[in-house]
From TrEMBL:
Source species: Barrientosiimonas endolithica
UniProt protein name: 3-hydroxyacyl-CoA dehydrogenase
Domain 3-hydroxyacyl-CoA dehydrogenase NAD binding: 12-189
Annotated metabolic or biological route of this protein: Lipid metabolism; butanoate metabolism
Keywords associated with the record: Oxidoreductase
Stretches assigned to the 3-hydroxyacyl-CoA dehydrogenase C-terminal domain: 192-288
Annotated family: Belongs to the 3-hydroxyacyl-CoA dehydrogenase family.
Length: 289
């Protein structure tokens, strides 16, 4: 492992181009890094390109980005549907669905593809990073790099470490997050890390409150925005995060702490079972045309 590589991360990969992955691609490309963006099929890779074009297109419309800069940004990103496209990147961020068997499969495969000195990062919000790292022969080069939704806007990046993570890797990833204009915080692998450990019991309480029927969804959300000064009400925020993700983090926190405040409310479980996952499916607590 050369020092240049540890300190200079210039070429990155992102695996999984859903809401979070596409946002993370945008963050890297905006910061001038060259990005290889991978999803499982040519169609999903194209959908990822569409997200990036639309999101940067909105910034052009708002006068925040020139057309020439948008073009340059898009040219920094290559889309692919095979993990082998990541053979020469310095770091990969995985942002695929939150299922341990999928993460294991991807980390195990990536381990055999990327250079020995490359860093493997996961954007997991609920799974154990230690278990993910165990799928590789390089657990000391595996970290969490947990972005917040919408990734291009929110500043926090939780840098998750395990008992095996190399200190130099932590420093590299923290420096990278700062280069992206983010605020990194370093957290040891633990259910909910820091931000979700604070947030999820509040969202679960809001859903339970709504479930009692004594307040409308709009008024409940207004209590948080107009009364407590939060940027979004908890039901709107749950729809933004994705109700499946909220439920997964509830499950993990509840299993780890047995704190009833983190237990997934019945309504949340039913909405997930019914496929009402929030914005991404067009329907959650609110409807999105
Ligand atoms: N992609 C790119 N840019 C976006 C965006 C997106 N998805 N959404 C909003 N923006 C940009 C807008 O373009 C706008 O940029 P300019 O100021 O340059 O024009 C800026 O963000 C503000 O957007 P809006 O004016 O449309 O709306 P707003 O001021 O109401 O802000 C918000 C929207 C940023 C989403 C704000 O409401 C907010 O911060 N909400 C709370 C979000 C939050 O708490 N997220 C954390 C969820 S927890 C999580 O993600 C972790 C997990 O593991 C579950």
């Amino acid at each position: 492992m050369s020092d240049e590589r540890t300190s200079g991360i210039d070429r990155v990969g992102v695996v999984g181009l859903g809401t979070m992955g596409a946002g993370i691609v945008e963050v890297f490309a905006r910061a001038g890094l060259s990005v290889v963006a991978v999803d499982g099929t040519p169609e999903l890779a194209e959908r990822g390109r569409g997200f990036l074009e639309r999101s940067t297109g909105k910034q052009v419309q708002r006068g925040r980005l020139s057309e020439a800069d948008q073009q340059a940004l898009l040219e920094r990103v290559t889309f692919a549907h095979e993990l082998t496209a990541l053979a020469d990147v310095d770091l990969v961020v995985e942002a695929v669905p939150e299922r341990m068997e999928i993460k294991h499969d991807i980390f195990g495969t990536l381990d055999g593809i990327v250079r020995d000195d490359a860093i493997l990062a996961s954007n997991t919000s609920s799974l154990s990073l230690t278990e993910i790292a165990a799928a590789t022969a390089r657990p000391e080069r595996v970290v969490g790099m947990h972005f917040f939704n919408p990734a291009p806007v929110l500043k926090l990046v939780e840098v998750i470490t395990t008992i095996l993570t190399d200190e130099a890797v932590v420093t590299s990833v923290r420096d990278l997050a700062e280069r992206l204009g983010k605020k990194p915080v370093v957290v040891r692998d633990r259910a909910g890390f820091v931000a979700n450990a604070l947030l999820i019991a509040y969202l679960a309480r809001a859903i339970r409150t709504y479930e009692t029927g004594h307040v409308t969804r709009e008024d409940l959300d207004a209590a948080a925005t107009a009364g407590i000064g939060l940027p979004m009400g908890p039901l709107t925020l749950s729809d933004l995060i994705g109700l499946d993700v909220v439920k997964e983090v509830c499950d993990v926190l509840y299993a780890a702490t047995h704190d009833p405040a983190s237990a997934p409310p019945a309504l949340l479980q039913q909405m997930v079972a019914a496929g009402r996952l929030g914005r991404k499916t067009g329907r959650g607590f609110y409807d999105y045309a």
